[in-house]
Amino acid sequence: MTRFTKRTTFSTLLLCTSILAGCSTTGTSSTSHKNTNNTFQATEQFYDSIVAKDDVDIAKLNLFMTKMPKGGDIHHHYSGTIYAETYLDWVENKNWRIDSCTLTIVKDDKPSGKGCAALTVAELLAEDALFRKLLTLWSDKDYDNHYHDQPPPDSNFFNTFGYFGPIADEYADIGVQIIKQRALKENVTYIETMYSRVAAKAKNFYSASERAELIQALRNVKTQEQANALFDKISQTLSSKAGFNQAVSDFVNDVANIHQNIDDDNFTMRYQTYTARVQDPLQVFTELYSGFIASNQSPLIVGVNIVAPENNYVALMDYTLHMQMYNYLHHKFPKVNRALHAGELTLGMVRPKDLMFHIKEARDIAKAERIGHGIDLPYETHSLELLEDLKQNAAIEINLTSNEFILGVEGQEHPYLIYSAYGVPMVISTDDSGVSRNNLTNEFVLLASRYQPSYSKIKEYVYNSIRYSFMSEADKATNLKRLDEKFEDFEAEMAKLASKMTN
Fold first, then answer.
1. Interatomic CA distance for residues 484 and 462, integer angstroms
2. How far apart are CA 294 and CA 300, in angstroms?
3. Which has the least CB within 10 A, 244, 275, 316, 371?
4. How far apart are CA 182 and CA 444, in angstroms?
5. Tens digits of residue pLDDT in 165-175
6. Torsions phi, psi for 488 (to 5 deg)
7. What are phi and psi of 234, to 5 degrees?
8. DSSP assignment, residue 347?
9. Residue 432 in contact with residue 465, Cβ under 8 Å?
């Protein structure tokens, strides 16, 4: 496991102009520019000419960011990245149906109720209004055009997974190839995707009464030591069950199978597993424990995450307990990486007390190496100490589109401004580009148009996506070298384009 004790940048000395304490200058990048100063400076000047104005030239910015090497997308959900239209293709291939009333997937010809029909995909597409309605439920498409007819935005976002969930894993080998080809076309050369959970169910290893007793005991713990005693007991039981060990083995083999023909000279993909924080704590621990074992066994499974709405009442009630699970498993499996969704909350979404500690506990208790979202930072009780800790020891995964849609946080309200001023390492990610119907290029366009970071800073974020990835050190070195070469070509190309546009 790599610990980062210093930020790196790509140009000359960066000065910190914020009044926030703790800002410091940074050193020169360990990855040197192969380009001449002329091509770098010409690219930098071209970028500045696009963004350094009252009205950012979005068309030119789209062109610039599309062409720019973007390194990796490392806050990336597999099922949320596939577009709804692709899922419909797969439904058609399976000869499944779509319920005309609920617009859910039907695996037989039986609709949900009287007056409903089990439509083939062809029949669905023939009814344009129904198809367009499906897109609004299976993704965030057109939400702003008729939001009054839809659930709240956070519910709309998370509900989508229930619609396409039944088909998502059926064609995973094809799905990861689609993701690879899409990434390559927008100059993304590494994907670290949250793929799936290990199919280990606590109900298969405990009776109902045993589960109820353990769940209550877990929720009664007061200290890490008390939690560890219970975790020891549960992990020993699970490890003794053939079905549990088989589930882990099956998952490791599944990842190996879908990964065939993915890595090549131009592209690398790795996988995270995860648990869903809205389940009972015994099931959460079962999935985390099995995930840590799988990651410990497979070089392709590079980390363990925790997902699902952080404002869910179960997720809020068990938050500290979940962090204690990570603490226990980190000590048991110290080589397994940890990226956590933490602080995906804002004022009014939850009670104020729930905004005060989530990122802090993800770092202090769970020892997370990367924080997904980190939006509630301004409200956390120990925000200044937290900023210093993050600056030295972790990175923030910035997801502008989903933060705007789910939380309503954008522009000057986004803590990107604080993280940037303080010098906290950041990476730019998509989160769920199929649900949001966007891509990594657009995330960089949003970043540049809203905040006008320097070209050197943009480039720093790109390199961070490799440096703070969970790849092996050898794979990082390969990807950094590849990124150097791509930026050399890109900056030469932008220098030529700039000269033509200014002549």
1. 11
2. 10
3. 316
4. 16
5. 888 889 999 99
6. -60, -45
7. -70, -45
8. B
9. no
Q: What is the pTM of this model?
A: 0.89
| 3-class secondary-structure state, position 332 | helix
Kindly tell me if the per-residue pLDDT of 20 is higher than 90: no
* Structure token pair of residue 249: 């083995």
> How many Å apart are CA 334 and CA 292, to the nearest integer?
10
CA distance 84 to 382: 41
Q: Which residue has the tokens 């131009």?
A: 266
Strand order in the sheet with 105-106: 105-106, 97-99, 118-119
Q: For 279, left (φ over 0), alpha (ψ -120 to 50), or beta?
A: beta
Measured between alpha carbons, how far is 358 from 427 in angstroms, rounded to an integer? 20
The rounded distance, in Å, linking the Cα atoms of 137 and 163 is: 8
Length of the chain: 503
- Mean pLDDT computed over 189-202: 97
CA angle 385, 391, 396 (to 5 degrees): 105
Q: Are 143 and 405 in contact (CB under 8 A)?
A: yes
Residue 158 CA to residue 273 CA, distance in Å, equals 18
Between 19 and 76, name the one with better pLDDT: 76
**Tens of pLDDT along 299-348?**
999 999 999 999 999 999 999 999 999 999 999 999 999 999 999 999 99
Q: Which value, in Å, is the radius of gyration of the alpha carbons in the chain?
A: 23
Residue 195 structure tokens: 């793929």
- The strand pairing partners of 269, in sequence order, are 191
